[in-house]
Amino acid sequence: MRSPSGFRLLKPPSVDWQALTRTSLAVTVITVLVWLFAEGESLQTVTVSVPVRIEAGDSGFGVRTGGAELSVVRLEVEGPSATVARLRSEGGEPVLIVPDAAVAGISPEPGSQAVDLASALSDRLGLSASGVRVVSIDPREVEVEVVRLVDVEIPVVPILPDGFAGQIVSVDPPTVSAVMTEQSRDDLVESGDSALALPTDRMLAGVLPGRSERLNQVPLRLPDAVRSDPFLRPSSSFVSVVVRVNERRVKAELRAVPIRVLVPAVLSREFAASPAGGADTIDRVEVSGPVGLIERIEAGEIRVYAIAKFDATDVGPSDEQEVTAQIQFSPFDPELSPLSFVSEPREILVRLLRRPRPAGTGTDGLP
What we know:
This protein is of the alpha+beta class. The protein contains seven helices and 21 strands.
C-alpha cells in the first residue's frame, strides 16, 4: 500500500502480550528465589537459650551433678540465617544428655568428670552438620558423678501390726527387685535386712477370725540400709499377702484388780498374810487379749486377780513382819491364758502376822 505522496507504508508488527507477561513473571520469581537463597546462606549470629536435662537414661548408670541442677544453657551461635532462625524457633523439649560412648557428653565410666556442653549440644543438635558454629556458651561445662547401678533382689518379710494374733500364709512376690548403687548393695548385704510388708489395721479390720484372706496393695518398707540411696528404684512399692487372723486382739485398762496373797503351804497354818499398807487392789492394770475375752472381763463375767507370791525362806522368826512378794495375774486360770499383762512384773510388800497358838501346843503347833 502506498501513501498519496508515493511512499510505501509498512504495517506495524504485532505484539504477543501474553508471552511478554509470562517472561516478566518468570524473571521476577527467579530474582526472588535467588534473593531468598542468598539471604538464607548469609551468616547470622544469635543467642538462644537451650533447655537441658542431665540424666542416666537406660545406660545402667546413675548420674548426679556436682552443684545446682542444670536446666538452661545459653548459646551464642553463628551460621546460615535460615538454620539459626530454625534453631531459635525450636525450644520446648529439653535436650537430654545421658551417658553414651557414641556421642560427646557424658562418658559411661564410673567416677567424676567434666562435661563439655559445647560439644555435647553441638552433637545432639546437629550444629556442625548444619554449618553452625558455637561462638560462646554459658556455662561451658558441668561437673557430674557417674555411678554404676546394680539390680538386687530383696527378700520380703510380712509383719502383722500389734493387736492382731494370726499367721502369714504367703507373700507375693516373696522378693522385690530394686536398682541401687553398688555401695548400697554392699551395705544391704552387711546389714542382712529385708523389706517389710506392713498390712495396716484398716486392711485387717475386715478379716474374719479363723479365715484366710488375700490382702492386695500391702505397702512395702525398704531396708534402712538402702533408703537413703538417691538412685534407689524398686520394681514395686506393694505386695500381696495372704493372712489368717486367729482372733482380733485389743488393749484395755483394768481398774481395782483384787490382790490375793498366796502363803506357802508350810506356813499357811502359822501365818496370816495381807497386803501391807491396807491396799487390797491394784489400779490401772494394762492388758491385751482377744476382743471377746476382754469384753467378758469388762462385763464382770470373768474376774482377774493379782496373786502375790513369796518364798518361805524369806520369812523370819518374828511374829509380825513384812516380806516382798511377786505379783502374777491369774496364773492358775486357763481361761485367762490368752491375756498379756503389760504391768508385769510387779512387787508389793506383804504383812505376815503369826496366828495365835492353841493352848497346850508347842512352837510347832503340836501338843
